[in-house]
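---------- Forwarded message ----------

FYI, see the (2Fe-2S)-binding protein record below. Original note from H. follows.
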Amino acid sequence: MSQFTLSVNGETRSIDIAGDTPLLWVLRDHLQLVGSKFGCGIGQCGACTVHLDGEPTRACITPVSDIGQRKITTIEGLSANGEHPLQIAWRELDVPQCGYCQAGQIMTAAALLKKSPRPSDQEIDAELEGNLCRCGTYLRIRAGIHRAAE
Ligand code: FES
């Protein structure tokens, strides 16, 4: 066990835990931030995507000891009261079906909009290709990103 001090959604959180513990478990089991989901556990589906210093990152394969001073943002910290333009667009367009993958989709999309405020379909598809949706909501996800970019 080691002591880690993490910046999570703008708050400083200290935790005593094994350094190889994946960030996803720290968030979900120790900090009760359960918006980030466990899908595959091997970095392949994107359900666990959070931001580290704004970069989309697979929390399921990121050991807590690798985080250092980087700032962690989860879906809970993306905006105050769920009012990020993507979250508004997701509601307006009923983007989710089962919803399980959508936090990861939104976190990846939010990082995309930061670097490309009006992304093309091609940019969206390229950026989100690692975020899988078993319900096949890809066209609505794309529409939601365009709506948020307006
Ligand atoms: Fe992390 Fe699938 S649960 S990428």
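H. also flagged this: The CA atoms of residues 96 and 102 lie 7 Å apart.
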